Each structure stands twice: as structure tokens, then as C-alpha cells.
Amino acid sequence: MNASIIDPLQGDFPEVIEEYLEHGVMKCIAFNRRGTLLAAGCSDGNCIIWDFETRGIAKELRDKDCVAAITSVCWSKYGHRVLVSAADKSLTLWDVVSGEKITRTILQQTPLQARLHPGSSTPSLCLACPLSSAPMIVDLNTGGATMLPVSIPDSNPGLAPPSRNKISDGTPPFSPTAACFNKCGDLVYAGNSKGEILLIDYKSVQVLAMVPTSGGSVIKNIVFSRNGQYLLTNSNDRTIRIYENLLPLKDGLKALNGLNETLNSLDDVEKLKIVGSKCLTLFREFQDTITKMHWKAPCFSGDGEWVIGGSASKGEHKIYIWDRAGHLVKILEGPKEALIDLVWHPVHPIVVSVSLTGLVYIWAKDYTENWSAFAPDFKELEENEEYIEREDEFDLIPETEKAKESNVNEDDEVDIVTVDKDSAFSDSDMSQEELCFLPAIPSPDAPEQQDKCLESSSKLVESNNSGSPLSEEGRPNGRAMNHASSPLEEDPGATRVKRKRKPSEKWLDLQL
Question: Which UniProt keywords apply (predicted)?
Fold first, then answer.
């Protein structure tokens, strides 16, 4: 679709289900940095890499050691590696090109989510958010894990208000804590069960700032926009909040340490709150004031202009789209299946959602072509109008064109080598090492299928030599050979009613 003929007033967000992907029971999805590959974790422990341009399977990462459901998938910065967390408490790092495992680490608790460090092209550190313990930094090379604090130092660290999650070893109940890296990966932003956003230096394992939310309820999701300027939180009070990041995108840890040094005279809690107010400021809140529904897997669009959230209600597949100003612009209604994961394409206005049945739905824009965009003086006619042509309108060289002087210098050199920077990726440069596509490897036919093809071809030759394709000798298995057979003929259980024809005299002569 040509972008120049698209009406800009239509809105740059998806509207209808364009297609769906089906392969096993998929549970979670993630795009690579350019949106050319889509990774999907399945319930059988395998990870499928889809080529999003062709909607075909480019690679299948099969793990013989894992038969549990995948809980999250994450791409490395340049797309050469994929981190997969599973319900069997494992973290597996894959090499995408070769399809081989690099490392496999077993944690003490089931990781609900795992994210690779965003600052390295070949990361060995990841941030894991287990089901029943605090977030941790995991070294995938050594298997070592460092627990992160989930509360300010004055309170009892590691504990949270009572919840339904219980651990069999007698430790206190714990609410899962959401956490994510910032854009450069030098800070971890964690949302705890008290409704607080903690800014943590994971190297020194210290809380450097704290931002209390207005609701004060458990924070279930926390995610940054692609450019790192906005932070999104999803809380148990059924509200999605957008915060503006006031720290610099680079060297945020250095700026945060500078703020702490200027406030050493204050109490720890007060200092953390003051520093937090200079790091994040509330920008917008989103909620459904009528139905008061919970939200599932909220996230930003690729350019950060839109915010989406899926309905957490059972039996419905609804996606709400807001603009950054806080207005609800669209509600996408899908099949009567619960939504479990959601992601926006990094470049195009495409949303991909996962249903409870394991299907992946691709939501795209219903484009309407605006032909008047081809030329500024083009006019769309609703009915026929009489037109009077100019005297020189259909001349090879109109007089009006002769009078115009060309301002183009034909001696100037035209640069056909330099690649213009894509505005969609203004936050980072294109890397020569980046993996955007996977080579297509044709899979050979099974030996049984080859034997069947040879047998069918030999019988087809016999039928051609028999004098007529209608003869019984020329029919494989007593039926006429028809490559474009109808579904009724292909179904062995269906009733086949065929009209017999009277043999011709020439055919009878050949039989004699």
C-alpha cells in the first residue's frame, strides 16, 4: 500500500483482523527490533520464529529438556539471540540463526517474565520476575542470581501484604513484582505491591528513588516506550498510568546519583520521594469508568503515540486504543476467546494478540485509498461534469511548459549510495550486525510421500497410454485421476455419486 494515497485523517491504528497464525498452542509473543520476525512461545516448551513479512515459519526452536509452557520471550538488541522463560523454572538463551541453545539456567521459582539487558548486542544478563519472589538479575553464563529490593530500606525488605500466592516451604506469601530495564539498561524500574515505583541500581542493589502511585495498589505491569520517554504501569485499581521520564536517556544512573548527593541531609524516605518526583511525573491515566474492567498486557505503539490494553474479562477478546492525550479512539472486538498477550508492531500500525485457544490474531488497518493525494490539483467527482479543454492541453509540448524555465541543474551529481535515516528508528542507528531476516531452508519431502508421488505419476502415464482417461485401467484405485478434485471427492467418508458414460465405438474397437 502506498503511504502517499492513504487518508491521514483515518488514524494510524489497526481496525480489523487481517489474518491469524496457527501452530500448536501459542502463549506469548514478541517482535524483534525491526518487526520483521515474531517469536511465539508455545505450551509444549517450543519457540516458533515467524517471518512476519511472509507469515511463514522461519525457525522452530525445539527444546528436548523443556516440556512446560513458555511464559515469556525476549529478543536481544540486534536479534541474534532469544531468551525464553518457561513454567519449569528455566531460562534458556537461544542462538536464532543456528537454532542451538547457548545456555540454560534453572531458578528457584517460576519466572513469569524475563528481559535481556538492552544495552548489549550479546547480553549475558537478564532481569527475571519470578512468581513468588522478588525480581532478580541473572547472569546467564554463570547461573548466579542477585535479588533486587522491592521496598524502601525502612520497611521490611522482601515482604509484601498478604496475597493468594503461597509458597510450600513456609516463607511468607508474596505478590509478584513487575520490573523492567530503562532504555540504556543502567537502571531497573520495579513496581511493588504497595503501589510504589522503585528506581534501583542493580549493580549496587540499592533503591535510589521512589515514586508512589495515586491508587496505592499492586502494580501488575510496567513497561517503557520504545524511545524511553514514557513509562506505563498497570495496577490492580484497574487504571493504566503514563509517566513522563525526566531523567536523560543516556547516563540516567549518573544523573540519579547526582540528585541523591544534593539531598543527603534529608531522611531516607523523604529523600527518595523527592528524588523520585524529579525522575517521573504523572502524565495521564486511562480507565473504563463504566465497566471498571481489569487490563491485560498494556503497551505503547512503536512511536509512542498510542496506548493499548486488552480486556482481562473471560470470554471476550477486546483491545482498547487510546491516544496519548487520554482519549479512547477505538475498541477492537475479536472472537469470543480470552486475550492473554498483546504487542504492537515496532513500525507499522499493526497489533498482534494471542487468544486463550493458542491462535495469534493480526490486527491491521482497513485502508481506504485517497486518489486525490496523487496531485494537489486532483479533484474527485461525484457526478459527471462538462469539461472544456485548453487549446494546447494535448500538445506534445504545451506552450505553458515552453515558457517555464527549468531550475534543475543537470550537472549536479545524484547521490544513490547514502541511505536516509528512517524516522521510525530515530532512537537508534541501523547496525550492520542486526538480524532482520532468516534464510529460508526448504524441507525435503518424506520418503513415503515421494513413493506415493512416483506411484501416482506412473499410474498417470499408464492412464494416458490406455486410450481414454475414462477407462477402468486408467484410474488409480478404480477412480478417475483429478488433481483439482473437490472436497467431496477427497473425503473418504463422503458419498460419491458418479454418472457412467456409454463407451464409444472407437474405444470398443481398441478393446477388441
Answer: Nucleus, Repeat, WD repeat
309 Cβ contact partners less than 8 Å away, ≥ 6 residues apart:
234, 240, 286, 295, 296, 297, 298, 319, 320, 342
Angle at 459 between CA 458 and CA 460, to 5 degrees: 90
- How does pLDDT run across 141-153, given as a tens digit for each residue? 999 999 999 988 5
Contact of 158 with 134, CB cutoff 8 Å = yes
> In Å, how far from its chain's centre is CA 60?
17
* The pLDDT of residue 431: 58
Rounded distance, CA 380 to CA 391, Å? 24
Phi, psi of 430 (to 5 degrees): -75, 130
pLDDT tens digits, 245-278: 999 988 899 999 998 888 876 778 899 999 999 9
**What is the model's pTM?**
0.76
| Rounded-to-integer distance, Cα 132 and Cα 171, Å | 10
CA dist list (Å): 167 to 87, 133, 170, 218? 16, 10, 6, 19
